[in-house]
Write a structure and sequence with these properties.
By secondary structure, this protein is mainly alpha-helical. The protein is built from 7 helices and no strands. The protein is extended, with a radius of gyration of 20 Å.
């Protein structure tokens, strides 16, 4: 069942995200060219703190994207859950996954499981261990 209002709304959200991403790229380019935070803030009608935050987020996302460490790829929520229960290595995540124990962890659910299946080597290990 198609909902044209929902489709329009979702398309607008996606367009807004793309606009913000392009703006943030321009902010980073201005900063990399030597402009001061205050100059960039005036040019983009943002606060100086917002400009700093956007630049930091841009580089954090770039670092995470380029990283080969799966812990850099998962959400902060999933990282916090793992930290709380003492999971700190890829091997521990894979072991708990293979023993179907991840969903037994408090507050760990399907979204976290999808993250693990996306970024950790659980699929190939699971197949070879059976």
């Amino acid at each position: 069942m198609d909902n044209p209002y929902l489709d329009t709304y979702l398309a607008q959200i996606e367009a807004d995200r793309e606009d913000i991403f392009r703006r943030d790229q321009k902010i980073v380019a201005a900063w990399e060219s030597g402009q001061k935070y205050s100059e960039i803030a005036r040019a983009f009608d943002l606060s100086k703190e917002n400009v700093k935050d956007r630049i930091e987020r841009f580089y954090r996302a770039k670092r995470n994207h380029e990283s080969t460490n799966p812990f850099d790829k998962i959400s902060q929520r999933t990282q916090n859950i793992f930290q709380k229960v003492g999971i700190s290595t890829v091997e521990q995540v894979v072991d708990r996954y293979n023993r179907n124990e991840l969903l037994c962890i408090d507050n760990f659910g399907r979204k976290g499981l999808r993250e693990i299946e996306m970024w950790f080597p659980v699929g190939s290990l699971k197949r070879t261990s059976t």
